[in-house]
Design a protein that fits this description.
The protein has 193 residues and is mostly beta strands. It has helices at 19-23, 56-59, 120-125, and strands at residues 2-11, 33-48, 68-89, 92-111, 132-145, 149-163, 168-182.
Amino acid sequence: VHSKGVTLYYLFNHRHFSHPAAYAQSTVQRKSCGSFKLGFSYSYHRINFASSTLPQPILNKISDDMRFDRVKYSDYAVSFGYTYNWVAARNFLINISLSPALNYIHSHIKLEDGQSDVTPWDNIKRFNFHNLNFDFVGRLGMVYNNNKYFAGVSVVAHSFNYNKDKFSLNQSFGSVNVYVGFNFKKRKEFLNY
């Protein structure tokens, strides 16, 4: 499995809510606050599955629809969710962010015999409501930041759903980041949020 992507989002309460306080440590949130957020993301996924290399007892039991070599799909998603920074103690922040997303998928499947089920042009020239799915992105961050030193942990979880007539695939992955550091030459106007 190979996945890559980019996400852009807009925070409606950006004057009082600081997303970087939880995930970039460039600001410090002093009061608990939340914000709705609107996002757009693009991701590309490649899943290799050499079905011909499976042991014969397994091959005898799987459907012909599962005999493929590769699935590639691009996922375009619009999300709307809510994120909240809870200042649990002085200099200690906990953030939770939940964003369901509506996505549209363009796919390309390479079958076991080397043939393709659809050409890239087929995906571009026709819009199909069957290619709409729901995805989900969740974030959790905890950070201690006293303006000089910071330490924390963050978790980001994604789920992607690929549904076709032949088969469906639910793909979930996440990342955990643990960090420590210190700030130097920090500009005073960005110290407190």
